[in-house]
Design goal:
Strand order of the largest sheet: 1-4-5-3-2-6-7-8
Order of helices and strands: EHEHEEEHEEHEHHEHEEEEEHHH
Shape: elongated
Helix content: 25-40%
CATH class of the largest domain: Alpha Beta
Number of helices: 10
Number of strands: 14
Strand content: 25-35%
CATH topology of the largest domain: Rossmann fold
Number of domains: 2
Length: 321
């Protein structure tokens, strides 16, 4: 059942949702959380599609916030409501905020949150640098951004590392779950001492940087960063005295696991869809301590630009060509 409300209020939206749910014969008792999506008009279709797909695993209320351009326009709230079979196990409220109301999205969304249920806020676009200080982010136990959506993905990730709060996470980290799982399985068998490694990926890939920092932390060895044509991460190589432990994935779909003294093994390792990433984040609503530790180590490392500037200054001072 679909219904449009023009120039409405949050109380009217909530009443309309309740009535639509009653007419459709859908109960709200099985919903496990409220998913708030802060997105622009251009990206809202794909974001809602991904949220509906994730709701098949996690029944929820999806509140999508679209801030329409034009600060001087008259404050107005329009809503599009969807409840019923076509929305899977979710009920959806798409809110369009006009004028100064754009700056008060949290006040509009607050009455629409499911009572006694956790809240997850997702920014499919660039998102705020400090999600916990954002108006919508302050309502949530879990805040999901995507550094890869920005113009400077690694710079954005470093900026967020400097103001990280428990409950913050990023799809750049979520994309690494299959890689981390496969690496852990590869190292679950006896191996010689690892003395170095390498992560190869497309330029400015934030997931590759997080993976390299994680490996440096957990293995205690230097990890080289290598730029390739992609797609995404294409190779991880760990060097030992008897040979390299390597995972290579040149096509973004199928990986080859190589270990010294063992035959190569093909492993499915496809790049993950937005629906899969969002569903994983909805499974875990507590703070991710491992991600927090990796971010703190990333923040402590000099950026590539800073390291290059330091190297150039040292070269100039020493007179070495």
């Amino acid at each position: 059942m679909n219904r449009d409300l023009t120039n409405t209020r949050a109380a009217d939206i909530l009443a309309a949702l309740t009535e639509a749910r009653r007419r459709a014969g859908v109960a709200a008792l099985g919903m496990v959380l409220t998913l708030v999506v802060d997105v622009d008009e251009a990206g809202h279709y794909d974001a809602v599609h991904a949220a509906i797909a994730a709701a098949r695993e996690h029944p929820c209320r999806i509140v999508t916030v679209i801030r329409r351009s034009g600060e001087r326009s008259t404050p107005r709230l329009d809503a599009e409501l969807r409840v019923g079979e076509e929305t899977s196990l979710a009920e959806i409220a798409i809110l369009r905020l006009y004028g100064p109301l754009r700056q008060h999205a949290d006040s509009v969304v607050l009455p629409l949150l499911l009572p006694d249920a956790p809240v997850l806020v997702w920014w499919p676009g660039a998102g705020p640098i400090e999600p916990a200080k954002d108006g919508l982010g302050a309502l949530a136990q879990r805040r999901v951004t995507d550094a890869a959506a920005g113009r400077d993905p690694i710079g954005t990730l470093r900026a967020r590392a400097g103001c990280h709060h428990p409950g913050d996470t990023d799809f750049a980290w979520t994309r690494l779950t299959p890689w981390r799982t496969l690496l852990a399985a590869a190292l679950d068998q006896p191996f010689d001492r690892i003395h170095g490694g390498m992560v190869a990926a497309a330029r400015k890939n934030p997931s590759a940087e997080l993976l390299a920092v994680w490996l440096e932390w957990r293995l205690g060895v230097p990890i080289e960063r290598k730029v390739t044509k992609g797609p995404g991460i294409t190779e991880v190589r760990l060097s030992t005295q008897s040979g390299d432990i390597a995972i290579t994935r040149p096509d973004g779909r199928l990986a080859t696991l190589s270990r010294p003294g063992q035959p190569d093994r093909s492993v499915p390792l496809p790049r993950r869809s937005t629906e899969e990433l969002l569903a994983e984040e909805m499974r875990r609503l507590d703070p991710d301590d491992i991600y927090s530790a990796v971010l703190s180590r990333l923040a402590a490392q000099p950026s590539a630009e800073a390291a290059s500037a330091t190297h150039d200054a040292a070269t100039e001072e020493s007179g070495t060509p």
